[in-house]
Amino acid sequence: MRTEKDGVLGIDIGTQGTKALVVDSEGNIQGVGTSSYSFEIPRPGWSEQDPRIWWQAVISSLKILREKGISLSNIRAVGVSGQMHSSVLLGEDGEVVRSAILWNDVRTTEECAEIEELLGEKHVYRITKNAVLPGFTAPKLRWIQKNEPDRYRAIRWVMLPKDYIVFRLTGERSTDVSDASGTALFDVAGRKWSEALMEGLGFSREWFPAVYESKIVVGRVTAEAARATGLPEGLPVVAGAGDNAAAALGNGVFHEGKGVISVGTSGTVFVPLSRVPDFDDREERLKTVHLFCHCVPNTWHAMGVTLSAGMSLSWFCQQFGWRDFENMLSGVQEIPPGSDGLLFLPYINGERTPHNDPYARGVFLGISYRHSAKHFVRAVMEGVAFSLRDCLELIEKVTSSSPKELYLTGGAVKSRLWSQTFSDVLKRRLIGYEDREGPALGAAFLAGLGIGLWNSPDDLPHQVGSIPVITETNAGSASVYDQLYRVYRHLYPSLKETYQILHAAQQGS
C-alpha cells in the first residue's frame, strides 16, 4: 500500500460486477478495484450466470488494485461477500456443472409448492423461519433434478457465490450462517443445516459444506490462487457473508433499533434482531419477510426484498436510449413529487416481498400527454421507493418494532433526488455515506475480526473518514406520496388475475 500500512481485503460478488477493496486498521479505504459483467436471461423470468465469470472478475479487480499502487503483500486477511441464493454446482473434479441459477430467477414456483406439500408447509417454516420462495436454493435443486437429470447426477458440491470464490482461493469448501439461511435447508434459529429437510427432499448431506460463523478463518490462499491473483500464499480467508448482512455490518447496523435500506440490483430493507420471532403461522403476505442469521454471532435479521430496484432504473436507461445515468437524471428534479400522477410498479422480473409472485410484471399507470420522458424516470424512482415502503411496513408488523435509525446504502446514496424520494416516501430521516463501499467493506471487516485486528463489531472503525449525508423528510412531498402509496397498494391486487392470464397466454404462444 502507498501508506505501507497493513490492511484487510474485502471482495463482493455482485450480480452485475465484482468489487475488491483494501481497508487499513484505522478504517481508511486504501483502494478499490471493480470489474463489471452481465447476466443471461435464457427465457422470461429466468436469470443465470457462469460462476467462472466471478473468479475472472476477482482476478481483474485485484489487478486494478495493484495498478493503483496497492501492495497486496501487505494484506493480512481476506473476506468475501456475495449475492445470496444463486446455486453454484460443482462436480467431483471441482468444475462447474452448469451456470448458476440466480437469486432473481423465478422459474421454480411449482417446485416451491411441491416442497411445502411434500414436507409440510408448517414443518418447513418451523425450521427455516421462511416460506420456500423461488429465489432460494432448494427449489432450484429440485428443478434441476426434474429437468436436467444428467447434471443433477453430476453434483458433488452445492455452494453459494461467495463460497465458490473462497473455494477458488483456498481449495476449502465452506459457507456461513447468513448465506445458508437463504437455501430453504437451514435451521435459522439453531444456526445449522437441517438434515431432516435435506433427507426429506432426497438431497445428499455430503453436497453441503460445513457452515461457520462469518468471521471464522476457513482456509488459506493456495499457491495456485496466489499465482492467479497476486495475493500472498497462506493468507487467511474467513467464511464471509451474504451481501446484505455484510453491507449492514459495513454500515454499523448489527444492533436492534437500526436498519438499512439498500439499493443495488435488488432493493432490501434490513433490520437486526436479537432473537428470531417465535411463531409458526403468519398471514401469507408476512411470510415474504425473510428471517435470516446476521453475520454477527447470536444475531438475526428481518429482511424484505424487491427484486428489481436499481435494476429498474438500469433497465430504463439501457432500453430507452440514454447515454448514461447522469444524462438520464438531468432535469428530473424539476418534475414534481408524484410525477403528475404517473405510477410505476417495479415488478419487471416478478416480485418477492410482499407478493411472492413470479408472474408479476412492471407497469406504468396513468400515462397522459403531459408526461415527458423525465416523468417516467421519476416514476421509476418513486415506484422502487413505494416497493421498499411495502417491505418496511411488513417488517414492522412481523417484528412488532420499528427501527429508530435508518441508513441508506448503494447507488441511491449518490443521487440526492433518489435519497430525498426515499426519505419522503418512507417518512424517515435517512443517513447515508457516499464513501461507504457496502458489502465489500463489511467483508473486509469480517476478515479483520477473524484475525483479531478488531476484537468485536463494536470496535470497528465505522466513522473514520466518513461524512454522513443526512436526508430529512419534506412534509409536503411526504403528504403527496402518502396519497399515491394508497393507490400503489391497490394496484397489485387489481392486477394479480391479469398477470396470471398474461402468463398463460405467453405459455400458449
Structure characteristics:
Nucleotidyltransferase, domain 5; 16 helices; globular
Could you walk me through the main structural features you see in this protein, from its secondary elements to its overall organization?
- With 509 residues, the chain is of the alpha+beta class.
- The mean pLDDT is 93.
- The longest helix is centred in the C-terminal third of the chain and has 34 residues, at 475-508.
- The strands form eight sheets. Strands 18-19-17-16-22-23-24 form a seven-stranded mixed beta sheet, sandwiched between helices. It has a five-stranded mixed beta sheet with strand order 3-2-1-5-15, with helices on both faces. Strands 4-7 form a two-stranded antiparallel sheet.
- The protein has helices spanning 51-67, 109-119, 121-128, 137-147, 149-153, 161-170, 177-180, 195-201, 223-229, 243-250, 310-319, 325-329, 373-399, 416-426, 438-450, 475-508, and strands at 7-13, 17-24, 29-36, 48-49, 75-82, 88-90, 100-101, 157-159, 174-176, 186-187, 192-193, 210-212, 217-220, 236-238, 241-242, 258-263, 267-273, 290-293, 300-306, 343-345, 363-365, 405-410, 430-432, 469-471.
- The protein folds into two domains: 7-251 and 434-459, Nucleotidyltransferase, domain 5, CATH 3.30.420.40; 284-291 and 299-404 and 480-508, ATPase, nucleotide binding domain (Nucleotidyltransferase, domain 5), CATH 3.30.420.40.
Compute the separation of the termini in Å.
Answer: 58 Å
**Shape field:** globular
Residue fraction in strands: 15-25%
CATH-defined fold name of the largest domain: Nucleotidyltransferase, domain 5
How many structural domains can be distinguished in the coordinates? 2
CATH superfamily of the largest domain: ATPase, nucleotide binding domain
Low-confidence spans: pLDDT under 50, at least 5 residues?
none
Q: How many DSSP E strands?
A: 24
- How do the strands line up in the largest sheet? 18-19-17-16-22-23-24
Number of helices: 16
Based on CA atoms alone, the radius of gyration comes out at 22 Å
